Amino acid sequence: MTRSMTTRRTSDTSTAVLHRRPAERGAAPALPARPRFRWWHAAAVGVAANLVGNLPPSRADDRDFYASLPTPAGAPPGWVFAPVWAVNNTLTLWSNLRVANLPADTPGRRAARASEAATWALFAAFSPLYFGLRSPALGAADTVAGLVTTTHAVVVTARLDPPAAWALAPRLAWLALASYVSTVTATRAVRGRRTRPRTTTTAPPSSPESS
């Protein structure tokens, strides 16, 4: 009697596990045969975000501006940003496409997409704030906000589609480093302005002809 009850419970548990959603079992969910969103939708999002991020157009002295900032130890050189973000954006778009093609009633899908939409907006706003306005403080605030939204996106996406969540991991790691660098840089820049001695200009002496 006890053995038959144990066997039945085990069978019921196994059946329940098999009927769970793929994401609940730690596997990738089955995407529809004809997805609603295709690669060109993702490409359009990436192109639009990068176009907005380049308004106003980059200046020739942007690298000199970055090099002149009091960055802390571990700050990456300026040339690293372009290839790193090319990889991050490609993986992000792949992840976003997978989540977008999940059934509309999937719990957590809307929250994941909202976090990613906010992250794309912050990505587009960074260059105009940091380089356009020459404001390390606004750039730091944008970066830290991006770290927060990315962390939320990773947590929510992990419940929906583990591979899509892993695709966001490089961006999360990069933004963690960037938040440290930008925060320290902004703090040092503000302190440097406060401690910088003020220069007073004196009017040149008037010439005898003007008196």
TrEMBL record:
GO BP, sorted A to Z: tetrapyrrole metabolic process
CDD domains given in the database record: TSPO_MBR
Region feature (Disordered): 1-27, 189-211
Subcellular location, record wording: Membrane
InterPro entries: TspO/MBR-related_sf, TspO_MBR
Membrane topology: Multi-pass membrane protein
Main location per the UniProt record: membrane
Bias (Low complexity): 1-15
Domain of life where this protein originates: Bacteria
Keywords: Membrane, Transmembrane, Transmembrane helix
One of the record's GO cellular component terms: membrane
Family: Belongs to the TspO/BZRP family.
Official protein name in the record: Tryptophan-rich sensory protein
